[in-house]
Amino acid sequence: MMKFRTEVAIESPGWQIRPDDRLLFVGSCFAASIGQRFADNQFQALVNPYGVMYNPVSILHTLQQLYGRSEASDHPFLSDVVFLTLGTNHVYRLKETGEIVDNCEKRPQRLFQEETLSISDCAGALRQCVELLLAVNPRVHIVLTVSPIRYAKYGYHGSQLSKATLLLAADEVVAAFRAHLCYFPAYEILNDELRDYRFYADDMLHPSGQAVEYVWQQLVGHLLSPESHQFLADWRPIRQALSHKPFHPESEEYRQFCRHTDELLAAFRMKYPHAPIGTEVRGCGGTEVREYPFSASSGSKNLS
Fold first, then answer.
1. Residue 304 to residue 87: CA distance in whole angstroms
2. Which helix (H) or strand (E) holds 183?
3. By the 8 A CB rule, do 120 and 92 touch?
4. Which of 85, 97, 136, 284 lies 20 to 30 Å from 186 when distance is taken between CA atoms?
5. How far apart are CA 256 and CA 186, in angstroms?
6. pLDDT, tens digit, for every residue of 112-121?
7. Tell me, what's the pLDDT at 70?
8. Is 31 exposed, middle or buried (0-12, 13-18, 19+ CB in 10 A)?
9. From edge to edge, which strands make up the β-sheet containing 181-183?
10. What's this model's pTM, rounded to 2 decimal places?
């Protein structure tokens, strides 16, 4: 049989995400995009609590801010699964202090010096990330990904060198912590399996919505447990109902629709008491007010 595309093999990590797992997403816009999808589907998801981070050192800074100054038992969010997404090995160092900054905060460019991290630098920062997460929760599972987005400002050859550095560093660290760490091939899916410009946005760099959805489906298919698949299936009709915009909100038909939606919502809360749906989600009027105690997102929808 003829094959018209290459399919990326995704290795099973030997564990699966459960409906009650607490998920942490740190890194580039891929982390924000996929993390927000988990949050929207009622998983307990904390997404880039200190903003989008692109390089391994800045990702380490986020984890140090989140966990470095408190005992594990005292922290309000102990992660069961952590996604770390690497975007680039380029960093900006503040000349005055020599410190790698996570955000230039729109300060003048002359105050910073741009540098590139070596494979060893990236692997070293990732090792510290893993060691910190294991110190907080010895049973944590960590997923490493590399963003598929090319950085045109580096030049396309420079962008590929940056990605190659990240890929080699990720491979080194996964080999060292294989019991707790796995690699999810988002980079390879976009660049090898979906290598057609119809899968890219107008800038020809970011993936299209269809491509993002495909990556999400691959992740769900390979990392979620059967119970989590059922969790998604139970939430889907409620989410669709909550987003419904009625033409005749005063009609008896719509009132019946609202009552049915409220019944589904109550049953979902009963079956999944851990879901961070909040008490302010309303089934009537197409209004959905969320109280996600574990969700904090940069709001970006692009893979980057």
1. 6
2. strand 181-183
3. no
4. 136
5. 43
6. 999 999 999 9
7. 52
8. buried
9. 44-47, 22-27, 81-86, 141-146, 181-183
10. 0.87
